[in-house]
Amino acid sequence: MKILGISYGTLNGGNDAMVKEALMGAQEEGAEIEFINATTLDILHCTGCKACVMGLFGGKGNACVLKDDMQWLIDKMYDADGLVFSVPIFEKCATGLFHTTMDRFGPRMDRGNLMIAQKIAEQGGKPIDPRYLKDMVVSYMGVGGSDWSTRIEADFNTQAMTPKWTVIHNEIYPWSLGIMVNDEYLARAHQTGVDTAKAAKKLLDGTANIPVGIMGEDYKSAPGVCPHCHSRNFFLQEDGKAVCCVCGLEGKIEVEDGKYRFVYPEESLPHAHDTITGKFIHGDDIQNNEKSSRSKLASPQMKERKKKYMEFIKTSKPGE
Ligand SMILES: Cc1cc2nc3c(=O)[nH]c(=O)nc-3n(C[C@H](O)[C@H](O)[C@H](O)COP(=O)(O)O)c2cc1C
To answer: What's the chain look like in SS3?
Structure first.
């Protein structure tokens, strides 16, 4: 059983220490361990070219055209059975680099897309790496210099949703200056490693109860407000509707005994973005939209408009 720890903080800084502490915990559970500081890697931004999606649905695998360290990082992740991330909080969210790796997972590592691509491959296409279809567990630690941290847990759960990893811990560590001498924080990080390794072991033993969504029976962090994905982030609409920012379920926020409760119609559950059914529904919606937009996209008016905007002004670049 292998646990990989990934830090997005400065080299030898607080986030590195938190990941290493978690790895010590995982090692106690018998895990083989590995550590990566993501800031030392060459990871380019997703350009949105969609070559990976076309490859996926064209039966040509799921490669990315960018040549950098991302595929190496993906291989490292999928060689493991469980992952522990520690990510600095920047502007209340996960860092830009974390978001970039999340974007680079994008359509090509989406579990639903990969399942469809695998079916296509069975009819004569390039097979999907079987590691990409396996169940994995993940824990996240968000480390902040202050307590401005309201969006990072949602970022973490959103990242887990694409590959459909099961979240074990998702926690925030505010006021983290001097984290290496904060015994309470270090103990929590250590326990995070222990719990992640235990959950990974259960997956390998075949004794884990694989959840429908991204949270399973082994989930250890705050219960949150969304009963499905534990999110505390909601998109509140003027008409009283609330949309969970992570799993996308639509319902209402109610107050009971002074506590928030998110209620949604039971029949909407198969639409949750972290479920395979939800992923397939989303995939169908995109396909149908593409089909119905095809004639518009190929129209002379579209060509004219494209030309108009291209010719109107060029992008400025340094040195020009
Ligand atoms: C650009 C930037 C934005 C930051 N924004 C926040 C923030 O919104 N909330 C917060 O708690 N800390 C914020 N911080 C503090 C970092 O989270 C903190 O420096 C980091 O966790 C230290 O980790 P390290 O020792 O591993 O490098 C910010 C730091 C930087 C550089």
So the answer is: CEEEEEECCCCCCHHHHHHHHHHHHHHHCCCEEEEEEHHHCCCCCCCCCCHHHHHHHCCCCCCCCCCCCHHHHHHHHHHCCEEEEEEEEECCEECHHHHHHHHHHCHHHCHHHHHHHHHHHHCCCCCCCHHHHCCCEEEEEEECCCCCCCCHHHHHHHHHHCCCCEEEEEEEECCCCCHHHCHHHHHHHHHHHHHHHHHHHHHHHCCCCCCCCCECCCCCCCCCCCCCCCCCCEEECCCCCEEECCCCCEEEEEEECCEEEEECCHHHHHHCCCCHHHHHHHHHHHHHHHHHHHHHHCCHHHHHHHHHHHHHCCCCCCCC
